[in-house]
Amino acid sequence: MTRDHAPGDGNPPQAAAAPAPGMRLFSGEPQYGNFARIQHLLPVTPLQPSTRPYAFPRGEPLALPRDYDHHGTLRPLQALLDTTHTSALLVLQDGAVRFERYWLTGGPEVQWMSMSVAKSFVSALVGIACSEGHLASLEDPISRYVPLLAGTAYDGVSIRHVLQMSSGARWNEDYTDAGSEIARMGAASAPGGSFDAFMQTMVRETTPGTLCQYDSADTQALGMLVAAATGRSLAAYMREKLCEPLGMASPGYWVTDSHGREMAFAGLLLTARDFARIGELYRNGGRWQGVQVVPAGYVAASLAKGEARGEPHLAPGRPLVGGHAFPFGYGYQWWLPAGDDGEFSAIGVYNQFVYVDPSRGVVIVKLSANPAYGTSHDDADNKDEETLLALRAIARQFPRLPVAR
């Protein structure tokens, strides 16, 4: 493991502007100074580390590829790491650390802002709650468990459709539009704001189960579901059901609103190594060190491609993000790239990734603060697809694993 300064320039990192008041997201301003210390700037609920912390073993050091294929053109990997203000890059293969490096404000003990990578953790908690009998069926309407959602867009909508971002709720993911749902939801985290109050304003726009419209309110609804069904806060349930059994080694945090409700859709703060645990867990079908933590059937359903299960609206290129078609498919709060390698990824704005290639036993965590993110709808700025192509190039240095018979 090594730690560098700013990639490529040799200079110490400069402090970014403090968050808001003060943090203007999607404005082009540097954010790596903020994302490394959110727990000091916003209200949070702590997540204690495991009483039995697990340290990933170290494998043979890996050299990163010089280039990656971007639709037929080779591009330098280091340039992408520089441009996206990468703070951490961690590569596991067969559960062992093969590459680990930190830049800028990152570090092995730094809890970084997850953004939408948190969604995949929430999905795992839904699966666990279902296996424990807190939820009778994923086909149940979510409003049966969360009365606060009655009369909203979520009234009568199945839990499964909410997991698939197919609730039918109206959603505008335009980060440049102050009146969009995503902007109003972000405002609910300001002093005095309430995520629950915001959720009660959600209205239906399409028939549930027909359109995959990327909607952070869907994940907030799932966070409310976990809390209502289990009688525990989202953070408390995660502490028991994920932090403890996965051997999380460092403290974590959930960002909350002024009333203590967790920002389920984006507010999880963990170290790179602890983010990697969700990838390893799902790579192994929900098992961790021989213990089934998330039901295998739920994991398989979470990662099943929509086109194979008769749900074409979930197929690659069909989900909408900010009104624009996204190149990946969608499962239960996981992105599913096209291809035959079974890849899947948790993805958050500003280029947070937990990427998994199970065919090669690879999990990669990339934590970033891409300053151009959200300044346009173009992947040339946002680099979601481009980053996945780069992570794929890293993974494909490893041979495919033998297929189990």
What does this molecule look like?
- With 405 residues, the protein is of the alpha+beta class.
- The chain has helices at residues 32-35, 77-83, 118-131, 159-163, 181-187, 195-199, 216-230, 234-243, 272-283, 296-302, 379-382, 384-395; strands at residues 2-3, 44-47, 67-70, 73-76, 88-93, 96-102, 112-113, 252-255, 268-270, 287-288, 291-292, 320-321, 324-325, 329-330, 335-336, 344-348, 352-357, 362-367.
- The strands form 6 sheets. Strands 1-6-5-18-17-16 form a 6-stranded mixed β-sheet, with helices on both faces. A 4-stranded antiparallel β-sheet has the order 2-8-9-7.
- β5 and β6 form a beta hairpin.
- α3 runs parallel beside α7 (216-230) and α3 crosses α8.
List strands and helices in order, with pairings:
Blueprint: E1 2-3, H1 32-35, E2 44-47, E3 67-70, E4 73-76, H2 77-83, E5 88-93, E6 96-102, E7 112-113, H3 118-131, H4 159-163, H5 181-187, H6 195-199, H7 216-230, H8 234-243, E8 252-255, E9 268-270, H9 272-283, E10 287-288, E11 291-292, H10 296-302, E12 320-321, E13 324-325, E14 329-330, E15 335-336, E16 344-348, E17 352-357, E18 362-367, H11 379-382, H12 384-395
Parallel strand pairs: 1-6
Antiparallel strand pairs: 2-8, 3-4, 5-6, 5-18, 7-9, 8-9, 10-11, 12-13, 14-15, 16-17, 17-18
Helix pairs in contact: 3-7, 3-8
